[in-house]
Amino acid sequence: MANSTQLKSDALMEQMKLHMSTDAGKQLTKKIGLVYQINIAPKKLGFNEKSFVVDLKKGEVKEGKYEDGKPDATFSFKDDDFIKVATGKMNPQIAFMRGAMKIKGSISAAQKFTPDIFPKPSKM
């Protein structure tokens, strides 16, 4: 059952995959050049997490854990909190201080992980 869980974040990660192939996405790879692993839990951190790799060296986003060594930084979120941070509704520093986001790895790499790297939701 855990694998079939549909996360709100799935749609955002799909948009991110498309965003990586645009000029704006290519600029991100030049500017940031880091690899992030994002673990997203439906309800509680550490349980039934789905992992995504946002590779801003190669310019790709894929589901699963990072397999080429260690990512520069790994983040853990609950699904709702990830959406809030990625859409700019919650400041990443505040999310971290509240325990809504956990970070492993390089703090300087983590500080470059801002809502700016995500595509803006299209206005309907």
TrEMBL record:
Lineage top rank: taxon: Eukaryota
A Pfam family of this chain: SCP2
The protein's name in its UniProt record: SCP2 domain-containing protein
UniProt domain SCP2: residue ranges: 19-114
Matches recorded under InterPro entries: SCP2_sterol-bd_dom, SCP2_sterol-bd_dom_sf
